[in-house]
Amino acid sequence: MRFALFSAAVFAAVLALCPVSVAAAATKRNDNPPGPQPSNTQNHQGDNDFRVVRKRDGSLQLPVVPPEADLSPILCPLSMNVCPISETVPTTLEEWVEHGYECVDVREDLNSCGGCGSVDVQYDCTAIPNALGISCEVGACRVHSCKPGFTLALDGTSCVSTA
């Protein structure tokens, strides 16, 4: 209710500042009846068009999604990816919720750089053997320094023995 009052007040203020022709166009009556509107739904903004539905008791109903769908837009904030906490990848939304997940930025996260480190160790920058200084740059692990007896590889992604 507060939002509706606030929106009406803001709309009135905008109309007061607009030239007469813009204000008249904005308040022009539409003689066509409105089309059908879904009730109690909210579209999630993201790559996939998932619908979140509210039940009559006010609780949310989990959306039905195909198994191959990326669930990151449903479970995580924008620009983050969903990764399982366990080593197995859940196949349904219910399994993701049951087994647990984390939202990571795979462009910067040291433990999930370029993918989920819990599923595949190649995405865990902290697991690079003999590396001391590491970073995740745009989804790729970079090694900056190595332990004594090792030197930085030419590609900057590993440490090689100096012996």
TrEMBL record:
Matches recorded under Pfam families: CPL1-like
Keywords, alphabetical: Signal
Keyword Signal: yes
Domain Protein CPL1-like: 101-160
Signal peptide: 1-24
Region feature (Disordered): 28-47
Key word NADP present: no
PANTHER family assigned: APPLE DOMAIN-CONTAINING PROTEIN, PROTEIN, PUTATIVE-RELATED
Identification of the protein by name: Protein CPL1-like domain-containing protein
